[in-house]
Design a protein that fits this description.
This protein is of the alpha/beta class. The chain has helices at residues 17-20, 40-43, 46-57, 73-85, 97-110, 184-202, 209-231, 236-256, 260-272, 276-292, 296-305, 311-322, 330-341, 355-366, and strands at residues 10-13, 31-35, 60-64, 90-95, 132-136, 148-153, 158-163, 171-174. The longest helix has 23 residues, at 209-231. It starts with 9 loop residues before the first strand and ends with a helix. The relative contact order is 0.11.
């Protein structure tokens, strides 16, 4: 068996960990670019904790709070400019996947001696990046432990990833308190995003014993929260489990990559504004059914982590969480299948789908 595994991020977890372990921020630099959105970091207390932690260390900061959902290339360039102008030494990204992904791109762009053409942001060879510290406030993307920065790519009409080991966060703080005020919709969508990462990691040609072990643990922890999540009775411990499971799933895809589920889901997000986690959840059961035709044992291993007998049970489980699903026109389905068939992560699938297979999955899920 041949495989490689890498995880350079130091993870600190627990209630109050950002302030209690503020000293770990000292080695990052003297001044932070705090990257976040307009509202949530203020509302959930994470921004206040970050400012306290920096103050304890005598570190300065510049606040960049302009990150939107599904951040754009322009947003990344604006943040990088703010980082250079403010003479910041590191990025402190607070929020869901959008601020963390945008912050990583800013860390790369700001470290470039030469200007980057916005049209070439995804193809530029980066050789340096400022340190990144991540504080997730949702349990879904796992961006706090990956080398990916995923931005909206209007030129290609999709979402595209910058993948570079330089943007692995040096440090991640996991505090479940920041998720206590999340809506039911956000909680479900982000949890299903994490589930998709763990499941897709087990369906990757790059899966290994190490990644599978983390994926199984992640799936089991997520499944244990589905009941309280559906009933709206999540406890602080449930929130902590969701956050840990999301981070584990991030560690999985950092080494395995994602599959056709993400390739198809990006079009749902770009064209139909369907939340990324929800998009994955709508597609995941049908893609599992497709994979089971050729790798039944692998799919059964995944289902066993959730205590489920078959894919139909899995579809029912996700259906109960997602509610009424969207429907697409035949033209949309065909267009999205065509785009997905050209995505790089199609070749990452344990069972590689052709364009007709992708169309069949999309039709069964959303036709």
């Amino acid at each position: 068996m041949k495989f490689a595994y890498s995880m350079p991020t130091r993870v600190v977890a627990g209630e109050g960990c950002l302030v209690e372990s503020a000293a770990a921020l000292k080695e990052m630099g003297k001044k932070a670019l705090i990257v976040t959105g307009r509202h949530s970091a203020r509302a959930n207390g994470s921004l206040d904790d970050a400012l306290r932690a920096l103050a304890l260390n005598g570190q300065g900061y510049v606040l960049f709070d302009k990150v939107m959902s599904n951040p754009t290339v322009q947003c990344a360039f604006e943040g990088a400019a703010a980082m250079r102008e403010g003479k910041c030494d590191f990025v402190l990204a607070i929020g869901g996947g959008s601020p963390m992904d945008a912050g990583k791109a800013m860390a790369l762009l700001a470290a470039r001696d030469e200007a980057v053409d916005p049209a070439a942001i995804f193809s530029t060879a980066y050789t340096a990046a400022y340190p990144v510290v991540a504080v997730p406030t949702t349990a879904g993307t796992g961006s706090e432990v990956t080398q990916y920065s995923i931005l909206t790519n209007d030129a290609a009409e999709t979402k595209t990833s910058i993948a570079n080991p330089l943007i692995f966060p040096r440090l991640a703080y996991l505090d479940p308190r920041y998720m206590s005020g999340l809506s039911q919709t956000v909680t479900v969508n982000t949890a299903i995003d994490a589930l998709s990462h763990a499941v897709e990691g087990m369906l990757s040609v790059r899966a290994s014993a190490i990644s599978d072990g983390m994926a199984r643990q992640s799936i089991e922890m997520l499944a244990g929260c589905f009941g309280p999540m559906r009933e709206g009775t999540l406890s602080v411990q449930n929130r902590a489990d969701l956050l840990c499971a999301s981070t584990l799933a991030g560690m999985v895809i950092a080494n395995t990559g994602t599959t056709a589920v993400h390739a198809m889901g990006y079009s749902l997000t770009y064209y139909k504004n369907i939340d990324h986690g929800r998009a994955n959840g709508l597609l995941l059961p049908e893609f599992l059914a497709f994979t089971a035709k050729h790798a039944a044992g692998r799919v059964q291993n995944i289902l066993a982590c959730m205590g489920l007998a078959d894919v139909a049970d899995f579809a029912a489980l996700l259906g109960g969480l997602l509610g009424k699903r969207e429907t697409l026109t035949p033209e949309e389905l065909s267009h999205y299948a065509e785009k997905a068939s050209k995505a790089g992560n199609i070749g990452n699938c344990l069972v590689r789908p052709e364009k007709d297979d992708l169309l069949a999955v999309l039709k069964a899920a959303l036709g």
